[in-house]
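Ops channel
N.P.: pipeline sanity check, posting one input/output pair.
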């Protein structure tokens, strides 16, 4: 069965909800190869006291450990929010095949810092998948913080 980008983004939103429930910035990610989720993650910066414990990095690490490989050219990652520069570096070095994200992040996303793609030259990028749902979860989180 072939799943859509929307299906996998819903899965990433489920991960983001876990972060929200744990009082973490609600970002979720799922990493997919051949239509199968091989890694799921959500932000765990507060839990782990680690500023690098972003959903993307945790998903990449899990996928690489699962596959026993350091490159992910056949993989797609679904992220609820535009990746930050740190995560872009990890995504670049993983040589991931496709990046799909939901909402833009004007404060911390990579587009704030560069107009060029920071990803591997063969990586395709899709944005705006379930954008309203992804942005809404983030807005709800920060509204509760104020």
């Amino acid at each position: 069965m072939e799943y859509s980008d929307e299906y996998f983004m819903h899965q990433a939103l489920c991960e983001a909800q876990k972060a929200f429930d744990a009082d973490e910035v609600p970002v979720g990610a799922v990493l997919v190869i051949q239509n199968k989720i091989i890694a799921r993650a959500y932000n765990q910066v507060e839990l782990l006291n680690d500023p690098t414990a972003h959903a993307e990095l945790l998903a990449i690490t899990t996928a690489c450990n699962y596959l026993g490989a350091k490159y992910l050219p056949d993989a797609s990652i679904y992220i609820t929010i535009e990746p930050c520069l740190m995560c872009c570096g990890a995504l670049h070095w993983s040589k991931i095949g496709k990046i799909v994200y939901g909402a833009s992040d004007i404060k911390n996303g990579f587009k704030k810092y560069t107009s060029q793609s920071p990803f591997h030259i063969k990586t395709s990028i899709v944005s705006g998948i379930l954008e309203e749902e992804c942005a809404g979860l983030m807005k709800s989180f920060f509204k509760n913080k104020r």
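N.P.: looks fine end to end. The chain has a mean pLDDT of 96.
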